[in-house]
Amino acid sequence: MADTPSAGRFSQEAWTRNLAAYETIRTMPFNAELADGSLSRERFRRYIVQDAHYLIGFGRALALAAAKAPHPDRIVQFARGAETAIVVERALHGGFFQEYGIDAGTFAATPLSPACDHYVAWLLASAYAEPYEVVLGALLPCFWIYAEVGRDIFSRAGSDNPYRAWIDTYAGEEFGEAVAAMIAATDEAAAGASPILRARMHAAYAHATRLEYGFWDGAYRDVSWPL
User: Which domain holds residue 201?
Assistant: First the structure.
């Protein structure tokens, strides 16, 4: 794990407490098949459409974190993160959209899946209602788990893997730097938090980790609304 923080910090505690959940995510069918290139195009297509929807909500949550940040440097960090979520990562999705024949109308007409809707609604509710420290606890798993899954898949994926662009993005140095900055910001926030507030940060981190699993699992199993 390349971004291992110092022992005793919030991030190290959170990673250790949720290590079993991460291992389940790392080895779940979606990511196992993504790594060996056998993931079906239809499953990846479902995932990439929902991920593009998710990034809009994630960008809004980052913007709210910027508004709550106590220091100018953190305001800039989260504002830039919001821009990256909307512009840079959507450029990655745009390449896949073109490959899969997904136009703007198709994307707009595709509703959020139950997993995506739940994640976005919870994340935005947290960003609006919770204090800054808890918001960072909620945001951190999306950064960190994606980076670690990306690195793990990169280490075992072949050069001819059809999902190489996705793998290279999340295993890349630029994304790794964003993750390290997010870990640092979260540890900084936790350092001055009361035990009760720190516990709320842990609860938010754990729930976001569960939602990360649900997002990939929902795309794999094609979980949709019954009505």
Answer: 34-221
